[in-house]
């Protein structure tokens, strides 16, 4: 899929505009604070992922006029494997419509699949396990329509079990494990195993570049019920659920050369990590294209920062080679392929216009 045309009004610092995007690479350049990331964020919302970094709607409404806005409107006409018309109205809540009827974020994600890279995602290899889980969950949610719903159910069960642990083993508790706590392990383990299975399948099908190996880390407990039993005393002490997909991790290791077998986070330089993360996103995109039979849209914020000239050229070449619509932001304009857009003070103009 690709965004053919988008409209944006009342959103962050972006001046009201209608933009006809190009197929392939769209490179947004301009000084810091111009609004490049804000444009990507509007596209992230229009592809069903919501605001970046969980920003609240009140932060998205433009404050640039003397009277702060009370609403913002975003819309897109996307085309490709099929056509889709997406409308998002942001007031105190987000109202979404797909092809003229009320829709959910997941309906929109399924019809306009996109993947994003934000500067913090360079920590995918050496940051917290939560960063890696979030990435994998996003890919799983795109590939398997049931995944997001089951993950939400699983989180709900985790909250219930945590509250039971607090209730039974907190200051006011009596220390006795009630049968409800034991019983809660069964559906939790069943749902957790399903989530682990989807994650394993998705990872198994992702053809990540050959210099990286990736595997799931179940923290020693591939069998969740066994984990609940073995860790019951630690769980009571911590009053937290210690095994399951919400604690699992992904392990990336270098797969050849002098660093073979070492954790990728240690073995690679910052620039190499950035390229490796782009490689992981491309692998995820290929899987999405195969499974959904729909080309993903990539939203890549400052992806070429810290890359030397060769790495930058190779990255841009590999992005262009996908044939997908790719949005890249950069403070510098020295790109020799793709459609260049200049962004200044929230105004976006095609550079070849
Ligand atoms: N709700 C808002 N209303 C108006 N301006 C905003 C809003 N939120 C952020 N901004 C402004 O947007 C600018 C940041 O834009 P951003 O897209 O992050 O810039 P960059 O081009 O560096 O990626 C800042 O100047 C910030 O003040
Ligand atoms: Mg930015």
Please report the distance between the alpha carbons of the first and last residues. 25 Å
Query: Structural class given helices, strands, pairing?
Result: alpha/beta
SSE sequence, one letter per element? EEEHHEEEEHEHHHEHHEHHEHEEE
Which ligands appear in the coordinates?
adenosine-5'-diphosphate, magnesium ion
Apparent shape: globular
Helix content: 25-40%
Strand order, biggest sheet?
A: 2-1-4-5-6-7
Average pLDDT confidence is 92
Main sheet specs: 6 strands, antiparallel
Strand proportion, as a percent range, falls in 15-25%
Number of helices: 11
Radius of gyration from CA coordinates: 22 Å
Regions with pLDDT < 50 over 5+ consecutive residues?
Answer: none
Secondary structure: number of strands: 14
Which features characterize this protein?
single chain; 353 residues; alpha/beta; 6-stranded antiparallel β-sheet; 6-stranded mixed β-sheet; 11 helices; 40% helix; globular; binds adenosine-5'-diphosphate; binds magnesium ion
